[in-house]
Design a protein that fits this description.
Layout: E1 6-13, E2 20-26, E3 32-37, H1 47-53, H2 57-60, H3 66-78, E4 82-85, H4 88-97, E5 105-107, H5 108-115, H6 124-130, H7 143-164, H8 172-194
Parallel strand pairs: 1-4, 4-5
Antiparallel strand pairs: 1-2, 2-3
Length: 205
């Protein structure tokens, strides 16, 4: 498997599903292969999210627009068989608006929900703390650090997954497909049980 077959992506935005301010992509070796800040076309300030990611208008005033980096980003993504992130739907939506297509994605939240069964979905920071990965990060909500910790958490969760589901295939890409099938099958059964459609099987005497 090539290091670019599985990529880990994270972005920072002017607001939820707003304009892209920063993007990082990490490969399967844990190396950052792309990192760039961007100047938004329409937003002049973003005070609410600035308090979170600390990216100011001054810091990006001389940065390129996303469209100037579009071909470069797309070329990297095209090498991947799957792109992984946490809550990737928002990142994917914004990138699609910018003309960048991510055809195959995987959200590590599927692994989190399947394995940890928390009452509520954990933030990336809390999930990292639960695995002791938060010490590796200098800056939360820096896309470079967040993409790297997503890579670390994916490895941690896959180890846990393999321990629980020993029938899981050894190949990482096959394992990702297996996780999706297992998660959605469990989710479907839970919904059916909630509707009273699926009854618990009686124990054989």
């Amino acid at each position: 498997m090539l290091s670019t077959d599985i990529l880990f992506l994270d972005g920072e935005f002017t607001k939820l599903r707003g304009e892209l301010l920063e993007l990082a992509i990490v490969d399967y070796n844990g190396d950052t292969i792309y990192f760039q800040r961007f100047r938004p076309k329409n937003s002049k300030e973003w005070k609410r999210t600035e308090r979170i990611h600390h990216i100011t208008p001054e810091m990006v005033k001389d940065c390129p627009f996303v469209e100037q980096e579009r071909e470069k980003i797309q070329a990297i993504i095209n090498k991947a068989k799957v792109v992984i992130s946490k809550n990737i739907s928002s990142d994917r939506l914004v990138l699609n608006k910018e003309g960048i297509n991510i055809p195959r994605v995987f959200d590590i939240q599927l692994l989190e929900d399947l394995l940890l069964k928390n009452e509520k979905t954990l933030s990336l920071k809390d999930l990292a703390k639960s695995f002791g990965e938060d010490d590796n990060l200098a800056n939360w909500h820096c896309s470079k650090d967040d993409a790297f910790v997503t890579y670390c958490l994916f490895l941690d969760l896959m180890i846990m997954f393999r321990e629980k589901y020993t029938e899981c295939p050894s190949d990482q890409l096959k394992a990702i497909r297996y996780v999706k099938q297992r998660f959605y099958k469990n989710k479907y059964v839970r919904r059916q049980k909630a509707k009273g459609i699926v009854k618990k099987q009686k124990k054989k005497q």
